[in-house]
Amino acid sequence: MSDHAFADQRRSAILALLDRDTSVRVADLARELDVSTVTIRSDLDVLERAGKLRRTHGGAVALGRSVTVSVQDRRVNVNAEAKRAIAREAASWVKDGQSILLDSGTTALEVARALVDREGITVVTADLTVADLIDKALPGVEAVLLGGVVRKGHRYVTGPVTLAALGMLHADWAFICPTAMVPGRGFMTNFAPMAEVKSAMLDSATRRAALADVTKVGASGLVRFAGAEDVDLLLCDADPGADLRGYLSEKNSELKVVAA
């Protein structure tokens, strides 16, 4: 068999492994396929140029693999590009080796994806989908999944066990995703037990960021979990408007607002 045919066979095997596992590492592939790590890196580079995978530090992840998201996020999963932009900005504030408390939802999931090339980061989350993505596709990131009661159909945990675990932690960052940002009121969500988790995450971090596209300004939200004084950074996809900016600056003059 020619060298070209061997290479095609190897690359097909790599794609098959990616289809099964979502992520692969160079050292594991070299051992599995009985070739050098140099050869594997070359194969991964060829497959990335062909649009078959995405290279990461030390390996590769599959493209186009969908991760099941929760009921509420399937219902309101709009402004996807805005959420990706916010997530990229959030990830840029995190240094390798730091720890993150990461909220539930689509924007949080995009934050996890934006950490794909990072090393030595620990992400603590109550969201099963976020933890699953990290486990399968982010070889340089460690996932810590909080315990608690799984809210049926929503793929996250809440309750006394969740709050007790958060009470033991102190992370470098908390990234929280409100359902609504209401001028004069603060950051809101619609499920009281999740409001408790969000608030506990903010209490358990050195730096605290709220992540929300501008459609959340003045949106419907039943339960307040934080005010402007409880966050250090607000990341949006555009200017959140004079009313919200006025409320934020009045309550917390040091709060930084960034349009991603």
UniProtKB/TrEMBL annotation:
Transmembrane segments: none annotated. Residues 7-62 form the HTH deoR-type domain. InterPro entries: ArsR-like_HTH, Carb_Metab_HTH_regulators, DeoR-like_C, DeoR_HTH, NagB/RpiA_transferase-like, WH-like_DNA-bd_sf, WH_DNA-bd_sf. GO terms for molecular function: DNA binding. Pfam families: DeoRC, HTH_DeoR. The keyword Nucleus does not apply. Keywords: DNA-binding, Transcription, Transcription regulation. PANTHER family: AGA OPERON TRANSCRIPTIONAL REPRESSOR-RELATED (PTHR30363:SF44), HTH-TYPE TRANSCRIPTIONAL REGULATOR SRLR-RELATED (PTHR30363). This is DeoR/GlpR family DNA-binding transcription regulator.
